[in-house]
Amino acid sequence: MSTAATSATEGIRPASVGSYLTPARALPVGIAAVVVVWLFSAPAPGLRIPLGEGVAAVADWFVDNCGWLYAPIAGATEWGLGVFLLWLQLIPPPALCVVLVTLAWFAAGTRLALLTGVALLWVIGTGLWRPVLETLAMVSIAVFAAAAMGIAFGIGTAMLPRLRAPVGVLLDAMQTIPVFVYLLPVVLIFGPGNTAAVVVTVIYALPPMVRLTELGVRQVPHATVEAATSLGVTRGQLLHDVQVPLALPQIRAGLNQTIMLAIAMSVIAAIIGAGGLGSPVWSSLGRLEFGTALDAGVALVLIAIILDRASSSTVQGGRLWRRAAIAGGVIAAAMIVCGSIGGLRFADFTKVPSWLDFSLRGRADAAVDWLNISGAVVIDPIKNALVVYLLNPLNSALATVPWLVIVLLVGIAATVLLGLRRGLLLAALTSCIGFLGLWAEAGETVAITGVSVILTLAVAIPLGIAASADSRLEGVLRPILDTLQSLPIFLFVIPAVVVLGSGLPAGILATVLYTLAPACRLTCLAIKEVDPGPIEASTAAGATYLQRLRTVSLPLGAPMILTGINQSVIMALAMTVVSSFIGAPGLGRTILVAVAQVDLAAGVAAGLCMLILATVFSQLMTGLTGAVRRAEPESDLRSNRE
Known about the structure:
It is a single chain. By secondary structure, the chain is mostly helical. Helix content is 83%, strand content 0%. The chain has 30 helices and no strands. Helix 26 (504-528) runs antiparallel to helix 28 and helix 27 crosses helix 28 (545-579).
């Protein structure tokens, strides 16, 4: 058959079902289907699938019959953590301070050494010396294990392409499942305490190490690999002498991400009985003692900044050996001096000196009391309006609409945006929430997430637009957004509770603060990176700035703006679990109660529902972004014709 005949045959090939479901064709069919289903369906399904109970039964069997597998891991973790913490406690505290400052100088220079000194003064002045040592011990053990395993798995995945697909699916699941769900099986197997905290931190911090190691090894130039192979090197020599050294930047980036995730998880793991800085944070928030929580929060932020800068800095060549020699000499001298002077050797940094009391306990609590009394005139109406006019109507609407109607709407939207196959899949996933018996809790979560994202976009999009037009405003916003994106998730709860008190409004404020950065940053970037051609053409036609923004910049930047909205929604779903600590309802509260009661069945069901919500919305936003991108050439063609 000729090429022309082939092209003609392809041109008359039947279109897929999804191609016929344009919005204009699907709208009347969808309305009719929704009306019919609404009349003959219940608000929630009566059938319930006991998936969580099945998982719990499997976990119980594993605990009872597979001790030979997890007992050595528990023993090795407990031994390593105990030995490391013992050595930290045996070193005289002044000498340990010198060691930490010197290591910071060795890793990144004088500025980081000064910041480390300030952080140590803060820790000593707030009485957090013991929790900081416990956090350092847990993070060090977890990062060492995660780095070793991550590098091994990453190299293996890069060298064996068949492993990429299954390992990629496993890593996606590990990074998508709510972090609190990790706690349940780990506590069930290892029991509460520091050992379980280290294990769950390793699991949580492992994926970026694997991904970036695999990426670095796989992206080594093919010509370099062929040149080394032609010289007769073995596969092990090729890996050791060529691929791993060239992949070091990516491996170092993976280590940096692993450290940051380990710090965040070590604090969250305090809810399963782990020590460290997380314990004073959560216990203080539970007692509404904001000063103590702020003390630990500031210490954690300083530690995170120091470890981030130290792990991302590089020292090469002769400077490395010179710095190593100087650092070794300083540490040796500090050990000798502190070991020979009794006052330094037996110094007790767990007691706060009267001249070095930096604690915010009394001052922060007094400020909160004043704010609650003096600001109630302004704050209380805002809280009431937020609940009465936004949350309650949305929650009532979601509770009133039958579950099959929502499933049908999701299926129709997904079919129009993504095709029939994905539409059926997303509709089936949405129905699983009802069959798991958590339809009402999922509705509360959607309502909280929806209100939070609406408020976030109401602030982020105007700020992003203004920053794209004013470089000075962008310069002011950049460090603020960087700070918001680098803070651990639980720290957003503290200022929210300080301003609004405990409850759902505080959870929404914490979510807004947490999700603000990606939406604002990507809105600014989307408008700044719009093709200058259409903008110049509209300017030449006499359009004002607002007209150019409405007709050119926002439509052309819509795909990137939608990406920012997608990120904000996923982050808001993650934040619902943390905001449940201060009274927010929904799936987050179900997960929190399950963790507290070690109820694996309820925790698995709620975590799976949260995963389904994130997957469905992410897929819908992906389809919407694709539709917007496809619409751009059509709008450009229409403009050219006009």
